[in-house]
Amino acid sequence: MVYDSCFDIIGPIMVGPSSSHTAGVVSIGKFVHDFLGGEPEAAHIVFYDSFSETYKGHGTDKAVIGGLLGMDTDDKRIREAIELAARRKVALTFECQGDCPYYDHPNTVLITATRANATAIIGGVSIGGGISKIFSINGCELDLPLNLAYELEAIRTKYEEKPRYVAYAGGA
Question: Does the predicted TM-score (pTM) go above 0.70?
Answer without folding.
Answer: yes
